[in-house]
Structure formats: C-alpha cells, structure tokens
C-alpha cells in the first residue's frame, strides 16, 4: 500500500482537501491538534466559486440541509440605514453554477467531517499536533505530538492546513519576518436570537453597514432562528493588546461604537448581543512559494486574508479542489502534483488577498471620500456591484 498524504488541520480547508484528494484516489490522514474537532466562530458565507466545488465533492444533500440561501445583500449607509444598493442573489445558481449560501461554521465543518469519516480513503484523528518533519525515502517523516507522547509517521506528502499560525509554515519558513502581524482591525462576533433583533433586520438577506473606520455585517442562520453579526473596527495595536482576550456585553460594545453615530436600528442590534467575542485580525507576508518538495500549504496557512470579501473559506476550498485536480490531471509524484497545485493557485489567492485588503479601506472611508463612494454604489446599483465582484465567482 502506498504511503498516505498527511494533512495538518481539520478545519474547512483541511477537510475539503482530504475529500478532494480521496476523490483523486489518494489515501489521506488528517490530524487536528484540538482534542475535539469543532469550529469556533459562528457564521460563514460561501459564494458560488466555492459552492460549485462542494457540490462536486458530493456534499449537496448535506449542505442543503443546513444552509440558508439569502435572497439579497443590502449595502447600507451606517448613520441612517439607507440602502445604497440591493444585490439580488436569486439567480446566482443560473449565473455562476451555485447559490450564495450562509452557514453556521459548525454545520459546514460537521458536514465535511462526516463525509471524511464516511470515506474509506480518509482517516481523521484529533488531539494530534504535527510537529517538525524532514525528507525521507518515502516522502516525508513527520513527528506527531499526542497526549501519549511523540509518534513518527511516514507519509508521501504533508499539507499544512493549520491556519494563520501554522506550525507547518513555521518549519518551512523559519523567519521572524514571516510571523503573523496585526492587521489594524478587530472583529467583534456574536450570534443573536432572531427575536431580539429589530424586525426590519430579520429578513433572509445579508446586510453590510458602512461607517467611518468600521463596518458591520449580519445575516440569518439556521432557517432564520439566529442572526450572525460581526462588528469590525479599526483599532491601533496598543488598543488591541490592551484587551486581547475580552468579550463584551452588547450595551458596552454599543457605547464604544457610539462615536461612529450608527443608525438606531444598528445600535439596537449591537445591544441585543449578550456576549461579543473579541477577534483581532492577523495577516502574514505573501510567500513566493508554498511548496518545498513533498510539503505544501493550503488556506490560511498559505494566504491568510482579512475577511472583507468573505472569501477566506472559499479560497481554502478552491485550494483543496486544485490540489485534488493536480493529482487527477497529472497522475504524478507528490512533488510534481504539489508544484502544479501551487502554480495554479498562488496568483489567484494573492489577488484575492490584495482585493480583500482594498475592500476594507473602501468600506472604512469617511468624509468626502465616503460620500463619493456612496454615490458610486448608488450609481452602480445592485446589478453593477455584483458585476464588479463577478471575477471572484466565475472560477
């Protein structure tokens, strides 16, 4: 039996990669450092570019059971809630081959995990952290840290899908210059009972509110029973360091947000959160290569991005698809397939990283630039705004 490919990290990208590699006929071992495989956070937006891939992996019935398909995205002026543009999503499937979908992160990860557990080509193990590694006759020798001690495993290849603080990346790129760095923005996240939210904000639609130095995103989940909300605020590094592990009640977060003069309905939504979790956003420098021989990176480990285009998970899923397709197309050695995967993905992923960063600056404008931006959004309208981002969804 040929040596398996080992994946570090059982998040959405790692599990999607396992399923894609299994589809290509590869045996896969997935190791997750956490004792239990469960997603933290709450909401997740999956655009058509990733939705098509998940469907190709045979997940359509499982996803349809837990997803909510929003009818539209409303872009709102933060100070009064005026809708600058309404992006109609009802024909997304016919235009791009899959709908826009909203998931509780735990539901999407659960569907991927169950598919991996059901697949005879994949094995998933929690409570096991990938440590250092080195080239071997079979590909790569990996030291695995578990509760019972250190194990050594031989694998044909190693995929680091272990997030922005990837230990695999740290071994591939042992440089302080490559360390994660604070982006300048903090996300405050909460899930709210729908009944506690203003009635006008409970529709099966996503909402984006634009404010000086901040923006807010919220949308319904689980058949509309809860609302996922994210408040993103620019904060200097010293402010981020001062409360790096805080959670706040909604009333306190609303008070901190008061100087931005948000609309009453938005303040009411923020106040409805019993507990908002503090989530500083980190980035890393762009890499010239993700792959070194039989080792490669995927998702946030390769290209962490700020979430302002809602493409972080989608790009990890695109990575997973390209990885599996490289083996299916080439039927080659791990090293050759990994290099081909990188060649297909690195430019696209970095394009999305840069666009996500620009989107944040666009969202957070103030004064005359914000007024000009709002006028441009009104002029483009919903159809124009969708066309503006169509390059993301057509892949």
Structure commentary:
The protein has 395 residues and is α/β, with parallel strands linked by helices. Helix content is 38%, strand content 28%. The protein has 13 helices and 18 strands. The strands form four sheets. Strands 5-4-13-14-15-12-17-16 form an eight-stranded mixed beta sheet. α1 links the parallel β1 (5-8) and β2. The longest helix is centred in the C-terminal third of the chain and has 30 residues, at 334-363. It is globular. It starts with a strand and ends with a helix. The model has no long low-confidence stretch (mean pLDDT 93).
Overall pLDDT score: 93
Number of helical segments with 4 or more residues:
13
Q: Please state the CA-atom Rg, rounded to the nearest Å.
A: 21 Å
Number of distinct beta strands: 18
Walk across the major sheet and give the strand order. 5-4-13-14-15-12-17-16
Largest sheet: 8 strands, mixed
- What is the terminal separation in angstroms? 35 Å
Q: Looking at the structure, what is the overall shape?
A: globular
- Describe the oligomeric state of these chains in a short phrase: single chain
Determine the structural class based on helices, strands and strand pairing: alpha/beta
Helix-residue proportion: 25-40%
Share of residues in strands: 25-35%
Poorly predicted parts: none
How are the SSEs ordered, and which strands pair?
Layout (H helix, E strand, L loop, with lengths): L4 E4 L3 H12 L4 E5 L10 E4 L1 H9 L3 H7 L5 E6 L5 E6 L3 H5 L4 E4 H14 L3 E5 L1 E9 L2 E8 L2 E7 L1 E4 L6 H6 L8 E13 L12 E6 L2 E8 L4 E9 L2 H6 L4 E2 L1 H8 L6 H8 L4 E8 L11 E3 L14 H19 L3 H30 L3 H22 L1 H4 L2
Parallel strand pairs: 1-2, 1-11, 2-7, 4-13, 11-18
Antiparallel strand pairs: 3-6, 4-5, 8-9, 9-10, 12-15, 12-17, 13-14, 14-15, 16-17
